[in-house]
Each structure stands twice: as structure tokens, then as C-alpha cells.
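[scheduler] slot 2 assigned
[scheduler] job type: sequence-to-structure, two independent chains
[scheduler] chain ordering preserved from manifest
[runner] begin chain α
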Amino acid sequence: MTSLAELEAAIGASPSAVVAFSGGVDSSLVAAIAARVLGDRVLAVTAVSPSFATGELDGARSVAAAVGIAHRAITTDELSREGYRRNGRDRCYHCKSELYDRLAALASAEGFATTFSGTNVDDLGDWRPGLRAAEEHDVRHPLVEAGFRKADVRRVAIDLGIPSAEKPAMPCLASRVPHGTPVEPAVLAQIDRAERALRDLDYRELRVRHLGTAARVELGRDDLARIMGTEDRTEIVRAVEAAGYERVEIDDEPLRSGSFAGVRAIPLSIIR
């Protein structure tokens, strides 16, 4: 079984570090333990760009303050990279290359020895072209080194009282765009408006999948159960239409993170 001591040892093997910090549970745990082990020799850095959902920076700042780590926001420009905008299956490689280029420059300029990510063991089994970018930049993955799976991360984060311990995964907004559809600032902004509108209605775990003029709403199991047999579907549709979509589909199956690589053949409740 994984242990906190193993994670502390993995982090302590580096004299100082920058943490790629989204504010999600994985990077939050790395940041919390790095703050404990390295003290003022560690900096949590959040990259802000059009693909970063509204409100996530405030959340990251709050978590950083709670775990006692110095925090900084920087700007990345993945949209300037043609491979990212093209949105092939290697999109994440170009996104992470931009991120790690910026973090490496910061680390070099300010004397940090390494960069930590929040990658855990479960991530290694997915299609993760971003891991190639990490390898090219000598990024270390303390959770992997300590053998932590996602369940281990959540368990320890809950035990430590980390505010994001039970926060749903929040991948970048570009993950809502099917491969082959170009990633454009206006598309990311539209997705952000739609998802923000649903969060304002107190839906917690969700994705708004961009299908051109249409959108498909996917909800987590609890949120999906909430709307079954109710009129709440109408308010969902109206909220997403207000973001500029002409047609809204509500998936009858619970959200599965990482499942969107195109249009799946799945049951849909379609309201025009």
C-alpha cells in the first residue's frame, strides 16, 4: 500500500521545485507535501490561458493558501502553436510543451532544481501525449514514483484536509472539442460560458461537448440522477443555448472523463 512517507521521500529527493499546479486534487497533494518537505524552496505555478475555465484560478489560489505553498499565475499561449490549434490526437503534447517550456524558463531564472507534475499511476494507462512533453523537459512525477493511484491521492488528500480532495476532474476546455475540429478562442469561450451557466445552476460534475452549432451535455452520476423525471432538463437546455448553441443534447449516460474523441454512438435526450 502506498504511504505518505514514500511520497515525502520522492519529493524530498529534489532540493527545490516548481509544481505545475492546476488546483485539482493531484497537483494539490503534490503541492501540499512539497510545501511540508521543501518549505520556501517550492513554488506552485498555475498556467492561465483561454483553455483554463473561469473560476479555476481563484480555486487554485485558495488551495495554495490552504496548504501553505507560495503560488504564482503565469500566462501560456498554446493557441500560438499550430499543432495545438489543429487538434489532432497529439494536441496535449503541444499544450504541455508550451506549459513546460514556460515552467523550465521560470525554474532556470529563479534557481529551482526541477519541475513536478500531478501525474498519478492511473494516468499512465491512458493515451497521454503530454507525458512525452514531460519526458522531454525532465519533469518528475512524485505520485508515480511513490506508486499513488487516483484512489490513493483522494484518500490521502481527504486525510490531510486538502480543500480540493473531492473536486471533480477539470481538464482543459479544449478536451470538449472533438479531434480534427480546430481549437479557436471563440470556441473555448463558448464552452466556458455554457459550463459556467450550468455551474450557476448547481451542477457539479459536467462537460459541454462542442459539436459545431450543437452541444452535448454530459453530467456526473449524481447530477444525472437529479434530472431524471424532472423538468430540470429544460433549464439545462436554455442555459447552454444562451451560450450560443442552436441545439442541445443531454447524454443519458453518466460522464466518463477522457471519453470524448469524437461523437459517440450513445443514447441521447435531444431537446431542440
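[runner] end chain α
[runner] begin chain β
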Amino acid sequence: MLQYIGKRILMMIPVLLGVSFIIFTILALTPGDPARTMLGMDATTENVEALREQLGLNDPFFVRYFNWVINAVQGNFGNSYSRKIPVLGEIIARFPSTLKLAAGGMIIMVGIGVPVGIMSAVKQYSLADSVSMVSAMLLTSMPPFWFGMLLQLLFALRLSWLPATGADTLKHFILPCVTLAASMMASLIRMTRSNMLEVIRMDYIRTARAKGANERTVIYKHALRNALLPVITIIGLNFGGLLGGTMIIESVFGLPGLGTNAIGAIREKDTPMVMTSVLFVAFLAGFINLTVDIIYAFVDPRIKSQYAKR
């Protein structure tokens, strides 16, 4: 197991390098001059050129990228072009807000999606199954930012039950978490339902029922555990997507997280801030995928035996 974990951690290195190179290339090709943005449109050409030389923007592309990688390996991710502060400290300061949003969305997604999917499979073709499937399709078809605005209009403006923006209390995270979980919860419901339907039709489930086991034991002890592997995969991938997909939600609800920070940095062409933000999310996504693979071993004994053989 430890050897497998070590190999997966080493595999993250080329992935992070590839992500950093792509983002660095995109930022280099986009129009705009960070030095001009920092000094303003009224700055003289001499001042702009002096700042470009100071920031190393006049160096060739590969030289700039290589210098950034060397500094990042040493733990120096640079200072923000626009705010003149260390980018890593700013990201760490904003990360708790994004983590609260992603964790809240994950709790809602799993807490509703998995039970509803199980219920739809057990009561196939019933009214509850039809309602859950229609609701899942509606949630999938609605853009998250539009759904979030609808929640703001209803619960913040009309009913005044919850705040529309801000991040001061837990109440401020209810609407963003529901919005973030809505679309991904729909896919989790469908995935759980389809896997449960496939498992409960297998021979060993019929054997368990023939032996007199009650329905609750058959579903939760025999069927659910074998149907969980694909569901765990979807949950892990969705959690990584939740961390990366908070940009729009944070902008709609005015949350001071990584999303709003990255959007502002992209507008200002703040290369150090954008690069570090994207790499931070990419690293978290890779770590989450590794955690999902480890959880497999505890859910499925067959995978645990393969790890033991290795």
C-alpha cells in the first residue's frame, strides 16, 4: 500500500508540470501587459519598460517559465503583480472559504444524492422514482449561476430567510452550497440508481432473499457495498470539481474564496496569482483522487488483496 501511494504521489509531479506549462502558455498568449496594468494607462513608456525588466517580462518564454518552476520548487511562488503581496499567503488565507463551500456542497450532494438514488432503485417505476429522475434532469439542465440567482431572489429577497452575499456566518454558505451541489447531485442520483439496479438483480441478492434475509439487510449489507465503488469514484471526482467549480458560485454570492481571487487575477493578468491558484487546486484534486483509491481498499476486499500482493 505504501509503495502504491508513493508511486501515485510521484505521478502527480508530471501532471502538475503539465498543468503549469499550459496555464503559463495561455497567460503568455493572452493580450495585455501586466506592467502597463500595474502602472496605469498614464504611465510613460520608459517606466513601463523598466518595470517589465524588473519583473523579467522581457525574457524569452521558456526562460520565464523555467525561472518560475525553479522558484516554485523552492517554495517561492512570487508576489502578486497588482497587490504586491506573496501569492501563497493570499491563497492560504482565502482557502478556508472555498473549503467550506466545497465541503458543504459535498455533504448536501452525498446526503441527498445517495439515499435518493437507493430509493429510486429499490422502488423502480414508482412515483418516487419518477419524481427523483425528473428532478435530477431539471437540476442537470439548469446552469449553476442561474439557479443560484433564483435562490437569491426567493430566499434572500422575497422571503428574507437567508443572506444573499457575504461569508460572515454559516447562514451565508447555505445558498452557495445548495447551488454548488445541485447539478452534481443529479448525476450522483442517476449513478447510484443505475448501480443499485444492476447489483440487486444479481444471483447472490436473490439467494439472500431466498434464505429469508429481510429487505433492509439485503439492500444495505449485501447490495449497497458492492454498488458503492462507482459511486465513490463519482464523489471523489465531483469533490475535485467542486473545488475548481467554485469560481462562478463565489462570484454570484460574493464569497472571498479562491474563485473570486483567480477571476480578479485573470482580469489583471496577474501571472503569479493565477499560476499558484490553479496549481493549488490541481494538487488538491490529485490528492483527493489518491484518497478515493485508498478508500477502495476498505470498501472492496478484492482491491485490498491486490494491494497486499503488490
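[runner] end chain β
[qc] chain β: The radius of gyration is 24 Å.
[scheduler] slot 2 released
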